[in-house]
Specification:
This protein has 13 helices and 14 strands. With about 375 residues, it is of the alpha/beta class. It has two domains: about 260 residues, TIM Barrel, CATH 3.20.20.60; about 55 residues, no CATH class. α2 links the parallel β2 and β3. The radius of gyration is 23 Å and the shape is globular. The N and C termini lie far apart (about 45 Å). About 40% of the residues are buried. The model has no long low-confidence stretch (mean pLDDT about 95). Bound molecules: acetyl coenzyme *A (ACO), pyruvic acid (PYR) and magnesium ion (MG). Acetyl coenzyme *A (ACO) binds next to β1 and α1.
């Protein structure tokens, strides 16, 4: 409840008479790829029904990347697609326009009555602090009550301003609707006055160089020295992950704009996965497979995790496995993997087959 002006006993009370009760726990629904589409782009929109079941989240984007002249068409297009499509296991999200824009009020007052029953999560861009979440929270409660919705729509915030990063913990704890956070590297870079011009990913100038070799104690500054590119986003992602974990919500990478560079995209996604993110964005259909692969634990990882679980028995003490010590803390890490695999297997039959084929030899 950090940063909220509500007292502890009021935190889970609905913010409007007749609004659905807030959730006390955010469900861990698989969301490896949040796939963006522009509902005003007829060609793109026509592909969406066939993508149901192939991606964990479909997100109708109304904000940046949608032309100002197309804002109304995007909103109406999303309503049309949502009404006409059975999303089955796939979640439907939207990214509304920023809270200071001329479009956001109509976004919310149109979408909630029209398709609120189908919308799982509303992504709010350029969130600066808890006050932005409080505003959306109350408005959603009023709109949900009016529309007679029986479950609350969740909120996902994009971390894309310096103030937002500084306030990350209070943003995560601002409402029981908070589902998660995504990194917004493009707007964040601009807001911080970083000197990059890319959408996510690394930069060749952001590096460390190995020390010069020394000859008789003297540095040879003419010698070749390897350089290692560093991750521009490590600090922000690490802050996001901690803030989300602290509040029981979910962190995500964000967009990787170099669509052609699938290798660097995979690396960036994997760094985020290893640091604790549960998913990422996909801007182009070819990024979906990358995200699904990266954000699903590998068969090798699950085999190892299950072996540790089997070897640890009741989960206390310490054992040796393959020459390494395993104990209560490594068991907990393995259980994170095993539980994630179970959640993913429940919605991904191909992955289920792979995980089911793993046999754990308890003597090994
Ligand atoms: C910083 C931020 O805010 S990031 C979030 C905002 N940005 C976005 O949402 C961008 C979403 N993606 C896009 O707009 C597009 O993918 C672009 C502009 C990046 C590339 O588009 P194109 O040049 O058309 O890509 P490309 O030619 O490879 O497309 C191949 C096919 O996939 C379709 N396609 C492309 N992107 C998508 C998508 N996101 N969803 C569904 N279909 C798509 C195209 O319509 C095309 O269909 P076709 O084969 O029938 O002609
Ligand atoms: C994700 C996003 O909106 C940004 O990078 O600005
Ligand atoms: Mg942005």
């Amino acid at each position: 409840m950090t940063g909220s002006s509500r007292s502890a006993k009021d935190f889970f009370r609905p913010l409007a008479v007749g609004a659905p009760s807030p959730l006390t726990e955010i469900p861990a629904r698989p969301s490896r790829a949040i796939h963006f589409f522009d509902p005003s782009n007829e060609k793109m929109a026509a592909k969406i029904p066939a993508m149901v079941g192939t991606v964990d989240v479909l997100l109708g984007n109304l904000e940046d990347a949608v032309k100002a002249d197309n804002k109304l068409a995007a909103r109406e297009g999303l309503v049309k697609i949502a009404k006409a499509t059975d999303f089955g296991p796939t979640q439907l999200w939207t990214r509304i326009n920023s809270l200071d824009s001329p479009w956001v009020l109509d976004d919310l007052t149109t979408l909630v009555p029209a398709i609120g029953g189908k919308l799982d999560v509303i992504m709010v861009p350029k969130v600066q602090g808890a006050e932005d979440i409080h505003y959306v929270d109350r408005l959603l409660a009023q709109l949900e009550a009016k529309a007679g919705l029986d479950r609350p729509i969740l909120i996902h915030a994009i971390l894309e301003t310096a103030r937002g990063v500084a306030n990350v913990e209070e943003i995560c704890g601002a409402s029981p609707r908070m589902q998660g956070l995504s990194l917004g590297p493009a707007d964040l870079a601009a807001d911080r006055r970083m000197k990059t011009t890319r959408v996510g990913g690394g930069h060749p100038g952001y590096l460390v160089r190995e020390d010069p070799p020394r000859v008789d104690g003297t540095a040879n500054l003419e010698a070749h020295r390897a350089t290692y590119q560093q991750d521009l986003w490590h600090y922000t992602i690490a802050r996001m992950v901690d803030a989300c974990a602290m509040h029981g919500i979910y962190p995500y990478y964000g967009p990787f704009g170099d669509i052609a560079d699938v290798v660097a995209c995979e690396d960036q996604f994997r760094n985020a996965f290893l640091l604790g993110c549960v998913g990422t964005w996909s801007l182009h259909p070819k990024q979906i497979a990358i995200a699904n692969r990266v954000f699903s634990p590998s068969v090798e990882d699950i085999l190892h995790a299950r072996r540790v679980v089997a070897a640890m028995g009741d989960g206390t003490g310490a054992v040796m496995l393959d020459g390494k010590m395993e104990d209560d803390a490594s068991l907990k890490q393995c259980l994170v993997m095993v539980r994630l695999a179970e959640e993913l297997a429940a919605i991904d039959p191909e992955l289920k087959k792979q995980y089911d084929a793993i046999t754990v030899d308890e003597e090994a």
